[in-house]
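Lab notebook page, bench 4
Experiment: in silico fold of construct C2
Operator: M.H.
Input chain length: 285 residues
Purpose: comparison with the prior construct
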Amino acid sequence: MKNLRKMIGMPQKALCLGICSQSEISRIENNKLIPSSYVIQQISDKLNVSIEYFYEDNQTQRSDYFNDVKTQLAKARRLRNYNEIRDIIQIELKNPSIQKNIYMKKYLKWHEGIVLYMINQDKKAAIDILFTCIDINANYFSELEINILNSLGIFYRNDCNLEDATKYLEIAYDYITTFPLANKNRLRLKTSYNLSKVYTDSGLFDKSLVLCERGINICKNTEDMYLFAEFHYQYGRNWIMKGNDILGLEFWNKAKNILSLVGKQPLIKIIEADIEYYLKTKEVN
């Protein structure tokens, strides 16, 4: 990038405009920063070259780059920024290095399915593309495939197909509890949480309560707040559904307090709305 920039006579201050800071350009040129796919695309456009210009046949660099792409996509998933996910995969699917890597192609296909479902609302196409990424009858599932099973479960639950949602989430849960992936407690928590919601929807409150208790204990034992509040909310939801108002509202308020510690205001508002709606409904009845 530095050689090309100097060749066309463009200073760092000009290159960075509208893209990033000048210090970031300097760090990229001195191999101290791996830029995101967005930044590379914008730099390519400004320097009038294709994005492929910047890819070298170097395994270490490719590995670092792939990890950076995965980090970007993971962050976008957490924030539910599906437009950003769409933009990233549109760029990366043109990347020749990714086209040569079966794992990364599958990883992007998984996200393509998420985009089809969440933005295009093409449920059939989304589910079909996920099934091209996984062999349900396999004896081994990778972290990626467990994530794909979770997505299938979420899609089917959202469509009120609780039978298929249960099927694929139970496959994921049974596998990850029988053959736990190293250092993947969060994946186990995510699978447990998604399955607990499906059990509640299906009226299997006691089975859901067991999963919530296990999830809460894993969070405590590992000192990890990931889904800690959500498990408390789901635990309370089960007790509400079982008719235990006191215990249900206690855990909903615990969930709200946990969320306040981490500043998740949107989720707090959802819980507050649920509590208000429940109390009004109870009063009317």
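Observations: Residues 205 and 242 are 7 Å apart (CA to CA). The first helix runs from residue 2 to 7.
Next step: discuss at group meeting.
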